[in-house]
Hints:
Layout: E1 2-7, H1 17-28, E2 32-37, H2 49-54, H3 64-75, E3 78-84, H4 92-101, E4 108-110, E5 116-118, E6 125-132, H5 136-141, H6 145-153, E7 163-170, H7 176-183
Parallel strand pairs: 1-2, 1-3, 3-6, 6-7
Antiparallel strand pairs: 4-5
Amino acid sequence: MKVLLLDAFxxxxxxxxxxxxxxxxxxxxxxxxxHRVLVGGPFETFMSADERTAYHEETPLVxxxxxxxxxxxxxxxxxxxxxxxxxxxxxAVLKSWLERVLVPGVAFxxxxxxxxxxxxxxxxxxxxxxxxxxxxxxxxxxxxxxxRTTTWNIRLSxxxxxxxxxxxxxxxxxxxxxxxxxxxxx
Length: 186
């Protein structure tokens, strides 16, 4: 299986081991992993005016990075998000990637009646591995926007039988065995 792993962890943090462990487990299982490190890359900036204008045009992918990542995504069988939960949602760098790569024609398409239809029907596995400083009960009370974004909203654009995996770990001392168990079933 071809997996696109989006890594939104800062390379300076100890929680960086989460994405590395996920990559190691997937590769050991024989999966082909494309590991995209988002922090320090071109997705740290906001969408430019040209990208915003092009969003509603025929070719919404205007930068080389977005074109390359969209091509990788369209060839992948699985999508795995690894990120630290920030204010109960995904970090800004991951949100930037989502807004700039998951555009019309990639994440979703329009049918002949102008209804929105899934565009990532090649994605059959969707996963989220996140670290958080808050207990699960508090995160759920705060509506867990990160989980809703990465496993529910994006799932609507994937294959209709797409399976989801969610692993939430404690910041500072993540339980890497949880990652091994969860991704061992991929």
